[in-house]
Design a protein that fits this description.
Structural class of chain A: alpha+beta
Largest sheet of chain A: 4 strands, antiparallel
Distance between the termini of chain A: 56 Å
CATH topology of the largest domain in chain B: Rossmann fold
Helix content of chain A: 25-40%
Number of strands of chain A: 6
Largest sheet of chain B: 8 strands, mixed
Shape of chain A: elongated
Number of helices of chain A: 5
Number of domains of chain A: 2
CATH class of the largest domain in chain B: Alpha Beta
Radius of gyration of chain A: 21 Å
Strand order of the largest sheet of chain A: 1-2-3-4
Number of domains of chain B: 2
Number of helices of chain B: 5
Shape of chain B: globular
Order of helices and strands of chain A: EEEHHHHEHEE
CATH architecture of the largest domain in chain B: 3-Layer(aba) Sandwich
Structural class of chain B: alpha+beta
Radius of gyration of chain B: 17 Å
Distance between the termini of chain B: 56 Å
Order of helices and strands of chain B: EEHEEHEEEEEEEHHEH
Largest interface: A-B, 41 and 50 residues
Oligomer: heterodimer
Strand content of chain B: 25-35%
């Protein structure tokens, strides 16, 4: 089995800062992700050269609070699950949030890493739907989700 | 029979000309929202309140228009029941077509002007004050939770028309839009009570705009 690679953030996604959070848009999969402060800080440091322990060391300095490697490992797993990292060749071990909380204590100074994801709507889905009997060409246009293509009307 | 094409794509075919013209209007709105070069369109109801915009994002049938109507009755200014139009500076522009209120189970809309509800229509762009994310639940009382700016921005992205086609512009405008805004999320009950609660909360949370 190959050595586990250092985590590396994908560079083909768009990102914007919102305070200490980052909104990342994956153009390939049309999914938006909100990275909370911890996930965002870890993501920025995942350059493929640093190990999780090195990332933890840098975060400890940046945040002026002790950051355990298990927290970074959890962040890396969250980011990998959201496919925001370059694919790792070796499977990563699963870090339990409960174990991390146990390690850090309930009142840890650093928030647990969290990535929230949302599929971007198509323009048709983001617009208002059509009433029963209104003309349609596809079911996505109809409030009922049902376009009779023979009659060209929403059911 | 009346048939409507957009280029070589059939949009509508119906004996009733009004239905086909309504389809034309819908398609023009969608096209404008998707392709406008200098604006980003978010699917949301919008009212003006104390010099700021309140956005009510939501998909069809989520009750946006009903809530907008009740806010107009309470003195808010009408901006839109369909789109929040956001410029490069993050200001919200009016898209004040007549309110399309669905009054029966067929989902058919009846059009009303803002004046019908004693409200004026906004003409000037406004900075954003609050984004209110709510869904109707019978008997619910409006007890919202606050969202962070990042979480709120993600919700707005989920209501943007052009995120897939123009992600750069869309994200940049959303970033400008949300500066200083509050995000509230929760279940709401009847529109009349909820509208009053939302405006009360908006008054205390965002306060009036200072020149």
């Amino acid at each position: 089995m190959k050595e586990q690679q250092n985590p590396k953030a994908r560079v083909d996604c768009l990102s914007r800062k919102f305070g200490d959070e980052i909104l990342v848009y994956d153009k390939q999969r049309n999914i938006g992700h909100c990275l909370n402060s911890t996930a965002a800080a870890a993501w920025k440091l995942c350059d493929g050269n640093r190990s999780t322990s090195e990332v933890a060391g840098i975060l400890t300095q940046q945040l002026s609070a002790p950051v355990d490697e298990s927290l970074v490992q959890l962040a890396v797993e969250e980011l990998a699950k959201a496919r925001l990292l370059v694919e790792a060749e070796a499977p990563r071990r699963r870090t339990s949030r409960r174990d991390v909380i146990r390690t850090l204590g309930i009142a840890g100074a650093i928030a647990l890493p969290l990535v929230t994801s949302l599929v971007a709507p198509t323009p048709a889905r983001a617009a208002s739907c059509q009433a029963k009997g209104a003309p349609c060409v596809s079911s996505t246009q109809c409030c009922s989700g049902n376009c009779n293509t023979n009659s060209g009307k929403c059911h | 029979m009346n048939i409507l094409y957009a280029d070589n794509v059939r949009i509508a075919r119906n004996a009733d000309l009004d239905q086909v013209l309504a389809a034309l209007e819908t398609d023009l709105h969608r096209y404008t929202a998707e392709t406008a070069p200098s604006m980003t369109f978010l699917h949301a109801g919008v009212v003006g309140w104390q010099g700021r915009a309140i956005l009510l994002p939501g998909l069809s049938l989520s009750g946006k228009t009903t809530l907008v109507r009740e806010m107009l009755r309470l003195g808010a200014t009408y901006y839109s029941d369909e789109f929040a139009v956001v410029d490069n500076f993050g200001m919200v522009h009016p898209f004040s077509r007549p309110l399309g209120i669905r009054e029966d189970s067929t989902f058919a809309q009846t059009k009303y002007s803002a004046e019908t509800f004693g409200a004026a229509s906004g003409t000037k762009p406004l900075p954003l004050g609050a984004v209110v994310l709510c869904n109707y639940e019978a008997g619910a009382r409006w007890k919202p939770v606050s969202l962070s700016a990042g979480q709120g921005a993600l919700e707005l992205m989920g209501n943007s028309i052009s995120i897939r086609t123009k992600p750069h512009h869309t994200l940049r405008r959303i970033q400008k839009l949300v500066k200083g805004a509050v995000f509230l999320k929760g279940a709401r009950g009847e529109a009349r009570e909820s509208a009053a609660s939302i405006l009360n909360l908006a008054t205390t949370e965002i306060g009036p705009e200072t020149e």
